[in-house]
Amino acid sequence: MPEGPELFLAGQYVNRVCGGLVFSGKVEKSEISATQGGDQKPMDLVFRFGMSGSFKMVPVAEMPKHAHLRFYTKEKPLRVLCYVDVRRFGRWEVDGSWQADRGPCVMLEYEKFRENVLRNLSDKAFNKPICEALLNQKYFSGIGNYLRAEILYRLKIPPFEKARTVLEKLQHREETSGLTLSKKVKLKRENPDLLELCHMVPMEVINLGGKGYEPGRSEDYTAFVGWLQCYYVPGMKSLRDSNGRTIWFQGDPGPMAPKGNKSRKKQSQVKTDPGASKEKSRKKQLTVKTDADTSNPKVRKPVARKKSRTTSPPKAVEEARKPRKKPGTKTVKKVEDAAMANGTKTPNTRSKRKSAALQESPATDSESQKCRASSQKNRGKAAATTRARRGKAQ
DNA sequence: CGTCCACGTCTAC
DNA sequence: TAGACCTGGACGG
To answer: What is the CATH number of the domain that holds A32?
Structure first.
């Protein structure tokens, strides 16, 4: 769930579903043993969503798997507000605060964000390709992998053009000298520059009104997939950047493209001959699942390629991608008054976890308590699951 | 079965 | 600049 828009939408969601509610009792962590509720002084909890964090309010009977932190309502059809995080890259922090090196929010602090970038162009962060600089949260707080692709695509900026080169040009725009105010506004709206798009594009996602990037069967997700113009879209190219992240784009990759990445554009829908190429081709999906009774599967099947190769996914279903929009922005209220449990951290590899599932080690450095979502006990049929470990650590 | 991939950080050579 | 950190879905054999 987690680029800027997803965080914003999660905040809205929590405030909406919790409006007027009272929570009581323990705040529960996913291990049965490990909890402690207590009260009751107001405190701030800072959540980071990692790759898969989200909030969900459900009846107790429908507790989601991977619900790592749970707040129970006081009123009687008991419900739970859950922090859910499948991959557990997320964490929460008691009395946490905004990270020191996180820049102004691209959505809520646009002017500050813009200034922060343009005033610091000498920073070596801007020596990098623009697609990599865009993931630097010190300057582009809220931008993530799908947003960088969508933003660059709008202007057809080559992703591996040097960031400073791209951004220096925007300084001149600051003196929009002789124009009247209305002309300036019009110019901005009709020809937004890169930094303006860093605000506008995430706002578009918010205004879709769903949950943003959250795979599932929902109409909302269908709308989100339809909104994407570049990321994972059939016909677009992709490359690995120097951090191994996939950048989707169209056209020229730009001068700083990693070597060994030949930019080939493959046509959509071409099937590779079996064994024809040394490059391994495989299929991937960004899928909109539909209900079984609805006989209209809208599926995308782009092809992703091995490291260091350009990709053009075969086009699959174009129909899933019709542009549409909804209005409606609300403001976020602050989430407060949460009673909390102590932080713990569960290390572990999959194999280790079996024996360690219930162990908890108190957070070691706890000037502030940071918590990784702790692992959950295996349940039911999943109990016997093992899995080859990746990497070679430990 | 196994491999690769995913909305992001983190820290250790 | 590699990995580590995780789970699970899609796909290939």
So the answer is: 3.20.190.10
User: From the Cβ of A306, is strand C under 7 Å away?
Assistant: no
Confidence label for A289 from pLDDT (cuts 50, 70 and 90): low
Cα separation, A278 vs A305, whole angstroms: 11
Q: Say which nucleotide is closest to residue A215, CA to C1' distance.
A: B7
Query: Is A108 contained in some domain?
Result: yes
Q: How many residues does chain A have?
A: 394
Residues A280 and A187 in one domain: yes
Question: Which residues 211-250 on A are within 7 A of strand C at the CB atom?
Answer: 242-244
Same domain, A168 and A295: yes
Spatial CB neighbours of A291, under 8 Å, sequence gap ≥ 6: A217
| Same-domain pairing of A83 and A105 | no
**Closest nt to residue A350, judged CA to C1':** C6
Indicate whether A231 belongs to any domain.
yes
A162-176, A225-239, A255-269, A295-309, range with the lowest pLDDT: A295-309
Number of domains in chain A: 2
A180 CA to C4 C1' in angstroms comes to 54
Q: Encoding tokens for residue A100?
A: 């020191």
Residue A349, domain extent: 4-97+342-384
A34-64 confidence digits (pLDDT tens): 555 555 678 889 999 999 999 999 999 999 9
A268: CB partners within 8 A, 6+ apart: A234, A235, A312, A313, A314, A315
The pLDDT confidence band at residue A256, using thresholds 50, 70 and 90, is: very high
**The predicted structure's pLDDT at residue A230:** 98
A394 domain residue, yes or no: no
Q: Is this prediction's pTM over 0.90?
A: no
CA-nearest of A83, A25, A4, A133 to A335 is A83
Helices assigned H by DSSP within chain A: 4-17, 110-118, 130-133, 145-155, 163-174, 181-190, 194-208, 219-227, 350-356
Same domain, A196 and A76: no
According to the model, what pLDDT value does residue A275 have?
A: 32
Residues A33 and A108 in one domain: no
Report the nucleotide nearest the CA of residue A213, measured to C1': B7
Tens-digit pLDDT profile for residues A149-167 = 999 999 999 999 999 999 9
pLDDT at A34: 53
A144, A201: one domain:
yes
- Strand C bases within 7 angstroms of protein beta carbons: 1-12
Predicted pLDDT of residue A161:
98
